[in-house]
Structures are given as structure tokens and as C-alpha cells.
Amino acid sequence: MRELFDVSGMLADRAVRVVVTCGTGGVGKTSVSAALAVTAAEAGRHVVLVTVDPAKRLATALGLAGLGGEPQPVPGISGGSLDALMLDMTQTFDDAVRSHAPRNRVDEVLRNPFYKALSTSFSGTQDYMATEKLGQLYERSLADGRWDLIVVDTPPSRSALDFLDAPARLDRLAEGPVLQLLAPSRGPLKLIGTGLSQVTWLISKIIGSKALSDLQVFASAFETVMTGFRRRAGVVRTLLASPAAAFVVVASPRKAALDEARFFADQLRGRRTTSRGVVVNRVTPPVSLSSGDEAALREHPEAYAWWRGTWATWKAQHERMLTALPASLPVALAAMLEREVTDLDAVRELGLLLAGGVGLAEEHGTPVVDI
């Protein structure tokens, strides 16, 4: 058997403060994220689950009427505790302004039309705000001890890479020409702040005096806000590169999903970090039979054909996994559940499968899982 991904051990490791799940669409990544969070919470940890991918079904699975931008307690958890939230980009941006802008300018900035345009249409806003939210949650966990584990459900794989690269991109953005132009201490807006009447008169003629006033308010606070963004992004970048962060790649037995999992694992290595392991979700479980039972089943052609079909499907899936996934990656298998993951009991069931420790065998001559 290849190295087993010890999911239970990872969740029990108190040195792990953040678990980041990544994977392509349609593999059950959000369900796996919820299962990891519930399993850790019921093992005694205090967990907050944040989904960057707006998956409304997560609220239903956790027994909540809905998810907002603030952590909500999940009922029915025993042992530890679990809160959950969905990334709200506008609220996170507003919270960041409240945190980073000068106190006497916060309301002005929040009402400012330039800020409103920036917060809703700025390229990469979701990635930057996901970084900011993770930083907020992590710093809060250190300050008040409410949580000792953060589980992050990222968007599908390629978008998740944008999320992971956001802290470094924020640094490049801050030094780029657009923000150099806006920065009042360095760019042309510095002239506005000096009270040079000819310059302000000219600009007001172009964009209007009210727009000029709004731009002055926005520009004067923007550097402070950006400095705060960069500080928190630096905290997140250090966190994600440390042993306190565990990356879990989620796949299914489909070839495209396995190829995407391998791609993502390679990308993580290129960023000087590694995935803790791969969860292959929705694996078809084979039914093990004794030779006597198999002989008896032959007397029932339809049942026998079903059994052979499940065995053939499992064997094909297993061979794809052995071929697609690098031997260096620990793997955990989760069998396809008989029902959709739409309530807390189903989430628990998936968590038990993950924690149960079924791995990927190099030899697969006979079925090995009873159902």
C-alpha cells in the first residue's frame, strides 16, 4: 500500500492551525471541507470553517438557514465547537477599511464613491479579500483563543492558486503604476494635497469639483489602508508557508480530476510548500465475496452482473489513481456515499470515512472493502 494520508492525525495535530482544501469542481471539495471541520470539532478542537467558493449547499449540510460574512455556530456539535461563514467580499473590504484607515476618516471612506467602485470592481478583489478574511480570523484566533483551527474551502483549483498567490500579488500591486499614481505621498495626487490652486482647478474642470473632493478624501486614506492590507497579507503568506498550514488536495476517480490534483500538487511544490495529502472522494467500493458466495451469486445473473460491474469499476478507478497520482503523495480514499451530503449526519459519515484510513493499494487482485 502507498503511504496512507493520515487525516485523523492531521486534524489532531495542535500545531496545525489552518487546513486549506483545494480541488477541481464536482469532486465534493466543499463536502470534504465540512467533513474535516466537523470531525476536528467533535474530536475536541475549536474550528471555524470559511468557504471562499460561494456554495450555498454548505449551510444546508451544516443545519444552518444560511451563511453570512460573520461566523455562525453550528448546532449539534459535541466535544469542541464549530463556526462557519461564507466570504462576503464587500463586508470584508469594509471591515478592512475600519481596521486600517485612520479612525476619523473611516465613515468618509466607506461613503466615498471611489471606494465603492474599487471595492466592487477591482481586479482580484475576491482573492485579496479571501487573504484579508483568513488574516482576520487567524489574528482573532491568536488574540482571544476562540478557534484553534481554521478550515478554508477554496474555489476550484486554478482559482485557488490565485488565492494562494494573492499576498505576493498585493505587494506587486502596491508598487505598480496604478497605485503609484494614486499614492498621495508619491504620485500626482501629492500635488492635490499641497493646495496648488492651478492643478486643482485644472483637475476639477476635468472631473468636477465634487469628484475632485471625493478623490482627495479617498487618496488621503488609501495609503494607510493599503499598508494595512499588505501587513495582513504578509502574516497570511508566512502562515501558509509554515508547518502550521496543511494543504489537502481533493479529487475524484475521474481522470480529469486526478490530473488536476496532480497539477495542483506540482504547483504547491513550485511555491515551496507541499500538500499534506490527497483525498480521493466518491470512490466506487467493491463488494468482497468468498468463493462460495460468488458461486451462489452466479445463480442470479442480474445480481452477479451488478457485482462484476462494481468490481470492474473499482479496478479501473484504482488503476487510474495509481497511474495519475505521484507515489510520493499520501492518499486517503472515501467511498461514494449512498446519499447526498445534505445534512450533518451525512457530513459526519463522510468524516468517519476520511478518518478511517483507507489507502491506495499497489496490488488490487481481489476486492478488499465490504459493504
Tags for this model:
371 residues, Rossmann fold, 16 helices, 55% helix, elongated
**Strand order across the largest sheet:** 3-4-2-5-1-6-7-8
CATH fold-level assignment: Rossmann fold
Q: Main β-sheet, in a few words?
A: 8 strands, mixed
Total beta strands: 8
How many domains comprise the coordinates? Answer: 1
Taking the alpha carbons of the first and last residues, their distance comes to: 21 Å
SS-based class: alpha/beta
CATH class: Alpha Beta
Describe the structure.
This protein is elongated. It has 16 helices and eight strands. It starts with 6 loop residues before the first helix and ends in a 15-residue tail after the last helix. An eight-stranded mixed beta sheet has the order 3-4-2-5-1-6-7-8, sandwiched between helices. It has helices at about 5-10, 30-40, 55-60, 90-100, 105-110, 115-120, 125-145, 155-175, 175-180, 190-195, 195-205, 210-240, 255-270, 290-295, 300-325, 345-355, and strands at about 20-25, 45-50, 70-75, 80-85, 150-155, 245-250, 275-285, 330-335. The protein has about 375 residues and is of the alpha/beta class.
Brief rundown of the structure:
This protein has 371 residues and is an alpha/beta fold.
Question: What layout of secondary structure does this protein have?
Answer:
Layout: H1 7-12, E1 18-23, H2 29-42, E2 46-51, H3 57-61, E3 72-73, E4 81-86, H4 89-100, H5 106-111, H6 113-121, H7 125-144, E5 149-153, H8 157-174, H9 177-182, H10 189-193, H11 197-207, H12 209-240, E6 245-251, H13 255-270, E7 275-283, H14 291-297, H15 301-324, E8 331-335, H16 344-356
Parallel strand pairs: 1-5, 1-6, 2-4, 2-5, 6-7, 7-8
Antiparallel strand pairs: 3-4
Helix pairs in contact: 2-16, 4-7, 4-12, 7-8, 7-12, 8-12, 11-12
